[in-house]
Amino acid sequence: MKTKSFELFKIIEIEINSICNRDCEFCPRYYNRSGIRKDKDGKLVRKQMSSEKVKAIIDEVTSAGFRGKIRFHRLSEPLVDARYLDFVKYASSKGLLVVDHTNGDILKTNPDLCKQLDGLVDEFTIGLYDYSTYKGKQKEIAFWKASSKKQKLHFHCLLNTQIFDRAQKCMIKSIKIPE
Ligand SMILES: C[S@@+](CC[C@H](N)C(=O)[O-])C[C@H]1O[C@@H](n2cnc3c(N)ncnc32)[C@H](O)[C@@H]1O
Ligand code: SF4
Fold it and tell me: Please, what are the domains in the chain?
């Protein structure tokens, strides 16, 4: 019998915690009532994956030969977790590329952390959710480019995020941007 080799996955996502400091109407977590991120009454569920478990997953995939990308969220904000820097260092030391997303709030209040992560996180996609004019958007982008010099930056803006229908309606309703 012939055996076929198959490619390992290209990216792993470990949701290190269940919380987010924002509650964006366009985000899939907004209506979550499953008890994973919000309870049946819409209250925030606060859970963390243990550090041992996070590192054990990294150990397991890297010992299987995985050397691809990793991020530390699914539908949460990874930077609200104080262990974030430690996980990034651990993943990098194992040869993984950290490619993460953030709303940027924690980085704005902690320039030291921003510096430490610059380059250690290979790519950051930063959510620009607050601007209301084209000039405001450019100002935000200039701020991030000045604070993160080594890593690759991408920006998710309200109107150019790849979105599904319901979210698109929320986004377009929530903001009007003169271009
Ligand atoms: C769910 S967020 C979690 C990480 C972080 N809190 C943030 O906002 O970047 C991950 C990514 O999903 C994007 N996103 C949020 N709502 C979305 C939607 N309805 N459709 C597609 N992408 C969405 C965000 O812009 C972000 O880049
Ligand atoms: S900041 Fe990110 S995870 Fe939090 S609600 Fe907004 S899009 Fe969702």
Answer: 11-174 (3.20.20.70)
